[in-house]
Predict the 3D structure of the following.
Amino acid sequence: MPRMINLGGVIVKQVVAIDVETTGFGKSDRVVEVGVVVYDLDSNQIIGQIDTLLNPDRNIPKESSQVHGILAEHVSLAPTFQEVSDFLHELLSKNVVIAHNADFDLRFIRQEFLRIGSDLEVKDVECTYRLTGQSLAVACEEISFEFRHHSAVEDAKAALAVWLAKQDRDTSSVHQAEHLPELQLFRTVRRSHIGLAEKPKGDSSLSGLRLNLTQSGAELTYLGLVDTSLRDFSISQVETLGLSEFAAESGISKSREVQLREEYLDELHRAALRDGIVTDVESEYFNQISKALGSQRTLEPSNVSTELPPAGSLICVTGTLTYKGVHFGKAEISTFLEEKGFVFTDVLSKKAGVALLLQESAGSQSSKVGKAQAWGIRRMVTSDFLSLF
């Protein structure tokens, strides 16, 4: 594996990952937190980071605070953007910049530079949202990188890990960089300084679902902003105005906005039906999102049969579980089934005559679940099956 990397014919020695939190989505909105990590591709290490709240010189709407956890009183003593601008300009203008939904983050950074009479030209941008087509949480799950939204700098590290994985590079050093000293700024105010270190930002509404959003450019960015807004299962009037403003600036018509929201719901619908069972949780989740997006669409939970198959039936099992304090692995489930007059099999085949597949959860995505769904083999959650005895 090369110690450095070739991007577009240029040998790159370090990259800069960035994430921002803002007061909203519009032109008048401001950055309230910035997180930057600088990664050296030669040593495969994070060599520095910036992690600070920023005073936006304006109020932070309640709806935005509910997303990122930052209140106006938290940033009253924080530096302004101008106080950190020189250092940010140096980092961002001279390096490859990585971000998840990069169009959004860099748009706000550029707006901040324009406000102070400056400008920023970023020559090379790597957007992990476009690389993966997934929310940051899902993209991290797919590479087995432990991640939960906590702050801008943690999101920047997560985006960096996703990008490194896409380059077939090791991501372990990203987690090992938690206690590195910050790159020197005039001053910083971190979440930990004001007691917010353990207060996570709201989980993305896509956090547990792998979607296949096929849009590109501004439309993909718009869907990313919709997802950010839906962290609290609602879209406020302020957020609606911000989304509309972004759409107008990006050439997305009002009718196309409506279509994009419906396409977003279409993908959630497909994701919920992927295993053939709509649970009560999935139904409630979809209906909340649909209402927030102004749609009349609903998704009803599946009517799953709990009728036992006849004695002597062949039953296959996927996964394990703990039920009423007792662990049920393959051996325990096999013994239980034999005691109840059924025949256990660990092989799911189309011709064997399997009457029932027991799966560890309603949302199980195992290969056996996929086969059972395709072949019309009845399924039941193992705990529901055990509760019948």
Summary: The first helix runs from residue 62 to 68. Residues 265 and 362 are 21 Å apart (CA to CA). The chain has 14 helices and 13 strands.
